[in-house]
């Protein structure tokens, strides 16, 4: 039976992305799956702090192997904004159209449009915390394009491509995204430390 691993989120987009990467080597559980209805406040000032807050809450209260992540968009012309406030840049948490509109408005007069997505994962495995980070460089479009993905995907064009994340298939995005790269680090770690030799081969 696959080892259970809790992902400290109920964001279906994130769960789908991670599930596609991790396959059936682990049984991926969400907060809903373990009956966690608490609103885990992201009070950290860095992605690392927020990721750790999520994983530690689950481990301290449910004593399960788990991981939490925090990610966001860093725009050079805006001094790294929206950063850790990416999900609530325009005020309400998760209002993606409003967040995109605010970014485009603040970027109107900027010719420097370089940016990056960054993800930090905090994994608590057998009581020990481990961190994994992934980034992807790109530029901010002048307008939204595409209907896939979520968050700022419609305005982010990864370096070396001429389409946005929102115009890519999940497979394309998973081959290069910040979350995918952080996940690759975590999966490599789990592959080496899994207690089940069969899981080690399958991961």
From TrEMBL:
Cofactor note: Binds 1 Mg(2+) ion per subunit.
Annotated catalysed reactions: XTP + H2O = XMP + diphosphate + H(+); dITP + H2O = dIMP + diphosphate + H(+); ITP + H2O = IMP + diphosphate + H(+)
Catalytic machinery residues: 70 (proton acceptor)
GO molecular function, one term: metal ion binding
Cofactor(s) this protein cannot do without: Mg(2+)
Keyword list, A-Z: Hydrolase, Magnesium, Metal-binding, Nucleotide metabolism, Nucleotide-binding
EC annotation from Swiss-Prot or TrEMBL: 3.6.1.66
GO cellular component, one term: cytosol
Keyword Magnesium set for record: yes
Sequence similarity: Belongs to the HAM1 NTPase family.
Protein name: dITP/XTP pyrophosphatase
Name of the gene this protein is made from: rdgB
